[in-house]
Amino acid sequence: EASLAVGKRALALNPNDTELMGEYGYRLALSGNWVEGCPLVAEARARNPGPLAYFETALALCAYFSGDYPLAATLIKRANVEANPTYHAMAAAIFAEAGQTADAEREAKWLEANVPALVKNARKEVSFRFARPQDADLFLGSLRKAGLDIVD
Predict the structure, then answer these.
(1) Cα 139 vs. chain centroid, distance in angstroms?
(2) How far apart are CA 10 and CA 42, in angstroms?
(3) For 60-84, what is each residue's pLDDT tens digit?
């Protein structure tokens, strides 16, 4: 809560800092406040000439948590941050919910081959990133749907 208060104050002091706006919005969203955080990320993306991959992944997660899986899939494909394991986890979950089974399975296989410890410790990793247990549970369910063996 303290860090979110600092972010809110910093943004009030400098509302034209799109990097701050995007970071604060993303953290606000991950804390469970998707309704206020996601529009800040969208505004930061609209006002920023690039690079956009970071904003695209954040907006993909926003669309995922709002239930707009086709939009989430479109956005995660645009992000294309292949070196980032978190990207692959997000893509697996999103593609699974969007009904893009082949893409979800491809991402699940990438995770198993490249970051098996992340898959093994998925509950801990996901709970670390999402403040609300219901957000973590939804995401873990999507990873299972993608074909990952997620242990509770």
Answers:
(1) 10
(2) 18
(3) 999 999 999 999 999 999 998 888 9
